Amino acid sequence: MEITGLTERKSAEQEITEKVREIEMIVTEKVVREQPREIPVTDEVDVLVIGSGPAGVSAAITAAREGAVTMLIEQTGDVGGISTAGLMSHWTGSTQGGIYEEILQRSCDSEKAGERVLINPEKLKTVYLEMLAEAGVRLKLYSFVCEPVMEGNTVRGVILENKSGRSAVLAKIVIDASGDGDVAAKAGVPYFLGREEDGRMQPATIMFKVAGVDTERAVLPGGFEDHYQIPAGDIQAIGEAQLPAPAGHVLLYRSTLPGIITCNMTNCIDIDGTNAEDLTRATYTCRKQMDAIVKFLREYVPGFENCYQISSASLIGIRETRHFRGEATLTAEDILAARVFEDWVVTKAAFNFDVHNMTGAGLDETGAQKLFPQKKGYTIPYGCFVPLRAENLYLAGRDISGTHMAHSNYRVMPICANMGLAVGVAAALCVRNGCSPRTLDVKLVQERLRELGVEP
């Protein structure tokens, strides 16, 4: 028995050596050549969703509920994106009906006015998982999507890496809800970065929470234009003078727990969220600012005299990267006109031009919050979700087809959740009818959305 076991071990070692030789990498002048290899197809589904922010989670839940065999792939260990791992304080912006209302109802800790939109991130993580499980979505966490599987200009699936190795998942329809549109970019969909005229992108933020706050006395500015008076003067002016640049604005939000406030005050400018080195620099920059922010709150802001940091987001908040070209493009003018498109699929979307300063703290000169003139809401057309040059692919979330200014409005989470609803319905209809996103009759999508409580 011992001799047999030794022989088996040697045989296994020989097999491993042979496999290593098969994939031997030849290192030349600053180039590593990897030998071709076969990648196993581990799953074949109807609808494959990349990214589990509010858009991706909603798309996956909806497609599965509509009868499509659906898989959701997420590179982190939690679902929810910025709404959970990003420690977002509340659902900012709004829409009516659809899956956003269901998520809010199932996850909120209080139905009181003003408190319903506060996010308990730990509860929300579980609610998302429950909704995905109830719908029958196949979930893969800790899995990084490397590139799309292409057949000409048609997306047939993706290649991913995780602890189990490298594998492929094939699908009839792929939904890119990755935020940055990583699949769409590698599939050859045209895009531009940031602001049209100069490519600059909105700053990045790491949210964090402080405890020990006297919330009865606390001063809580919720917007850049909230210039509350504190003993030292205007709170925004004092923040700009005392905090380390490019931090400088003061944004503080109630949480679902007593004595705990969420801080949206770290700030890093001039970064590209599609660049790993920039993401690393932004993470370090924002984390360095946290101690100074807590010291500032203790010294200057009433109610925060005894505050201390208790947690911070594990996911950095990237507001803007790629804007893809689609069959339609949403503009600032469309939003200001409260336009109802004939091919609407997202309705009653409402927010402002939330453009963070590209050169420092506060609101950019192009932004408008309290002075935003359009309060009625607007619709988003189907064509914004159908990218150019790639078939069987949908966009969902902040990577849809829109201008820089329009994006500053539609990028918020309630609107993104109902984007996921629309695209989830559309993807399931494509599977059922054997058609592509580009040829699907949008009236079928609208008919089903009306049945789900979405009206223009």
Describe this structure in words.
The structure is a single chain. This protein folds into 2 domains: 42-196 and 320-451, FAD/NAD(P)-binding domain; 208-312. 30% of the residues lie in helices and 19% in strands. The chain contains 11 helices and 19 strands. The protein has helices at residues 2-22, 54-65, 98-107, 121-135, 182-186, 235-242, 276-300, 332-336, 404-410, 413-433, 442-451, and strands spanning 26-27, 32-33, 41-50, 70-73, 138-140, 144-151, 154-162, 165-176, 191-193, 208-211, 229-230, 233-234, 252-254, 261-263, 308-312, 322-324, 344-349, 378-381, 393-395. The strands form 6 sheets. Strands 3, 4, 5, 6, 7, 8 and 19 form a 7-stranded mixed beta sheet that branches. The chain is globular, with a radius of gyration of 24 Å. The model is unreliable at 1-9 (pLDDT under 50).
Question: Helix and strand layout, with pairings?
Answer:
Layout: H1 2-22, E1 26-27, E2 32-33, E3 41-50, H2 54-65, E4 70-73, H3 98-107, H4 121-135, E5 138-140, E6 144-151, E7 154-162, E8 165-176, H5 182-186, E9 191-193, E10 208-211, E11 229-230, E12 233-234, H6 235-242, E13 252-254, E14 261-263, H7 276-300, E15 308-312, E16 322-324, H8 332-336, E17 344-349, E18 378-381, E19 393-395, H9 404-410, H10 413-433, H11 442-451
Parallel strand pairs: 3-4, 3-8, 4-5, 8-19
Antiparallel strand pairs: 1-2, 6-7, 7-8, 9-16, 10-14, 10-15, 11-12, 13-14, 17-18
Helix pairs in contact: 2-4, 2-10, 10-11
